[in-house]
């Protein structure tokens, strides 16, 4: 955890982009998990992901052409379908026999749901259905075709570990997220007490009632409650629910490589009147996330010296859980056994 680089977990689904970012008949190149990936959407609207390297001479396929069915390399015109299989080599003469089906640039499993494009990075050669996370998680209260009302992404120059620790840190808000509209006085800290329990691939802050005096919560109706879940490979899902409406906030951390990360914040809402407020909400969300981004860049200056870091009980317990979960995921995979969640039910207390 004190290092600048982090171990990257495989055998899991990661958020690559939103559905809106992936246009029909277009491709989009990204580096994720240290690998070059070319995403695309074919002429029928189906998303795909192939390795962004031509197996002939190694040039990235993103420099070539996509006709809605095949990607053609710009160097020698080799063509690959959306499964990564070669379908044509223009230089092949009539007396030359080549089994194109045995040539592939490689592909990654993709699943699109709830307005998100998920990509699976295998641990070896297993398929998702044979692995330990066969499907991406589903968000509660919303259907497969319901995308986020608003989504932003900022690149973080830090490892996935430090992005995750900031994501689950309950005590930094009064010092990092200081704006005129939020936590502008860090001296007024209040005691907090929350109950936590293990959940799938992580843990949850057990559902509890929210303060009725908060005007924003009243928009959701009466008896408003919330549950916050954290899970591998880097997801924070907050589900706020009243007797009239519900809101789900999702934050995802997807490694670009060992020391760079994409962090996304998105929310879904059952209320139909959110759209006019999107510009304001986008500005507030971006300001909030950028404060987290700036502090991890500052933190990096100290981490360059590889200091021994200290974690204190309760306030930093969730950070410890994160590292324990990662260790158990790696060990259980190498030992060929089921994942055993190391988190135990307990109450945490802190000032914030």
From TrEMBL:
Pfam families: Rieske, VanA_C. Signal peptide: none annotated. It comes from the Bacteria. Residues 13-119 form the Rieske domain. The keyword Transferase does not apply. Keywords: 2Fe-2S, Dioxygenase, Iron, Iron-sulfur, Metal-binding, Oxidoreductase. InterPro entries: Cholesterol_7-desaturase, Rieske_2Fe-2S, Rieske_2Fe-2S_sf, VanA_C_cat. One of its GO terms (molecular function) is dioxygenase activity. PROSITE patterns: RIESKE (PS51296). The keyword Cell membrane does not apply. This is Aromatic ring-hydroxylating dioxygenase subunit alpha. It comes from Stappia albiluteola.
């Amino acid at each position: 955890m004190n290092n600048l680089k982090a171990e990257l977990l495989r055998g899991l689904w990661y958020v690559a982009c939103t559905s809106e970012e992936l246009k029909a008949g277009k491709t989009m190149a990204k580096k994720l998990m240290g690998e070059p990936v070319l995403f695309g959407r074919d002429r029928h609207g189906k998303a795909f992901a192939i390795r962004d390297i031509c197996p002939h001479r190694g040039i990235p396929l993103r420099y070539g052409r996509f006709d809605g069915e095949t990607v053609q390399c710009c160097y020698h015109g080799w063509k690959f379908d959306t499964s990564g299989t070669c379908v044509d080599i223009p230089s092949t003469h009539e007396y030359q026999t080549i089994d194109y089906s045995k040539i592939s640039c490689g592909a990654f499993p993709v699943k699109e749901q709830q307005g998100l494009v998920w990509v699976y990075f295998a641990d070896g050669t297993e398929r998702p259905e044979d692995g330990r996370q066969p499907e991406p998680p589903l968000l509660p209260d919303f259907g497969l075709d319901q995308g986020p009302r608003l989504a932003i992404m900022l690149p973080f120059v830090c490892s996935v570990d430090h992005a995750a620790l900031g994501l689950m840190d309950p005590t930094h808000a009064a010092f990092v997220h200081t704006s005129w509209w939020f936590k502008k006085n860090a001296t007024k800290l209040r005691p907090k007490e929350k109950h936590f329990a293990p959940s799938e691939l992580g843990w949850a802050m057990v559902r509890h009632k929210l303060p009725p005096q908060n005007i924003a919560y009243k928009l959701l109706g009466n008896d408003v409650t919330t549950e916050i879940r954290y899970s591998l490979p880097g997801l924070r899902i907050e589900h706020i629910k009243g007797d009239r409406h519900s809101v789900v906030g999702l934050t995802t951390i997807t490694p670009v490589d060992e020391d760079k990360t994409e962090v996304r914040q998105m929310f879904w809402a059952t209320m139909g009147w959110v759209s006019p407020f999107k510009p304001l909400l986008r500005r507030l969300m971006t300001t909030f996330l950028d404060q987290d981004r700036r502090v991890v860049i500052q933190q990096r200056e100290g981490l360059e010296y590889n200091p021994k870091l200290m974690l204190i009980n309760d306030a930093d317990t969730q950070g410890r859980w994160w590292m324990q979960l990662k260790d158990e995921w790696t060990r259980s995979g190498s030992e060929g056994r089921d994942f055993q969640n190391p988190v135990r039910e307990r109450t945490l207390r802190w000032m914030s």
